Amino acid sequence: MVKIHTLHVEPPVVNASCAWASDYEQLRELYESPYTGAVITRTATFNGFSEDSSNTVAFAKDSFTSVNSYGYSPHALSKYLDWVYTLLTTPCLDGSPPTKPIIISITASTPTVLAEMFIPPSSPTRSNRHSAGAAPSTSTHAPTHTGGIDPATLVGIELNTSCPNIKDAPPPAYTFAFLLPLLDVLSSAFYSDPSITIGLKLPPYLYSTRFAEAIRFVHTYTREIRPAVTPPPHPPSPSFAPSPFALPPALGGLGGESIHPISLGNVYTFARLLAAHPDHAIRRIRVIGIGGVTSAAAAGRMRAAGASVVGCATLLGREGVRAFEIIAGHHP
Q1: pLDDT digits (tens, 9 = 90+) for 98-116
Q2: pTM value?
Q3: Order of strands across the sheet with 197-201?
Q4: For 35-72, how does the pLDDT look when each residue is reduced to its tens digit (9 = 90+)?
Q5: With 153 labelled, which of 56, 194, 203, 231 sits at a CA distance of 20 to 30 A?
Q6: Phi, psi of 8 (to 5 degrees)
Q7: Which residues of 301-328 are buried (b: 16+ CB within 10 A; e: fewer)?
Q8: CA distance 256 to 308
C-alpha cells in the first residue's frame, strides 16, 4: 500500500486523467475494478470545456502509442462532484462501504477561477450549489456513512498543468510565471484545510535545470504564500485549414510506448531530487509515474525509476478497464 498524504492507494495503480475517465459509467467501471487502487477523473474546468469533433485520438497500428487532440472534460466540475459523491456513498458489490480514493482532476486558466473552484458549496458566496461548480472539499462533499472511514482519506485533488492541446494556452508548467499564481491558490487551500491531498500533473521536462526549478518553486510553499498575480494573456494562434492528418488539428499530445523513455527519465530525476531534499515536507512528496505504462514490465520500470504509483491512459483507451489486469501481469 502506498500512502500519499491522506490517500491510501492499494494496489498502487491508477488511471491517468484522460478521456476514458470522462463520465459516470466510465468512473464507476474504473472504481469497481479490483486492479485499480484509486481513480482519477478526467480534468474538469469550472463550467466544462467546449469539446468538438477536432478533439479526438489516433492509435498506432503496431504499438501501444497514441496521439490525441483532446482538451479538458465537457462536464463541469459540479458534475464530477456529484458523481464522486455517488460513488463514495454507494455500497460496494459485496455490501461493504467504499474505501478506494478518488482524485478529482481540475484546471483553470486564471488563479481567480481556480480559487472559485475551491469555494465550498455551503459558502455564503455561493448562490446555488446545484448550478455552480464547487470546491472538491472533503468537508463539504464527502459521504457521512463510510463505515468509520475518514472521508478526507478518500478524496484528493490533481491540478492539471500539462495539457498541450488548449488553443492559445500552452501548458503552464512550462512557464513558471503562469504556474506560480495557480500554486498560490493551491497553497492557500491547503493551509486552510491541511487534510486535502493535492498533486500536480506535470508535462515531460527535457533538460535537468527544469526539474530543480520545479522543486525549488514548490518548496517555497512550505514556508510562504505568494500574492496571486494574473498571468498576461497569450497571443492568438493562427487558424488552420481542414487537416488530412490523423488528428484534425494535425498536432497533439503523444502518449503510450513512444513517450515511455522520456517519462522514465522524468520519474527517475524527480524521485531522486525529492528524496535528497533537506526539507522533510518535500521528501514526503510521492511520484505517480504515467507515460507508456502498457505492460507489467513497463510498470516495473516505472517503479524501479522511483514511482510510488503507476498509471496509464493509452492502454486504457485501447483495452478498456482490462488494461489494469494487463499491468498486473494477468494477461499477455
Answers
A1: 999 999 999 999 999 999 9
A2: 0.85
A3: 39-40, 102-106, 155-160, 197-201
A4: 999 999 999 999 999 998 888 889 888 889 898 889 99
A5: 203
A6: -115, 120
A7: bbbebbbbbbbbbbbbbbbebebbebbe
A8: 19
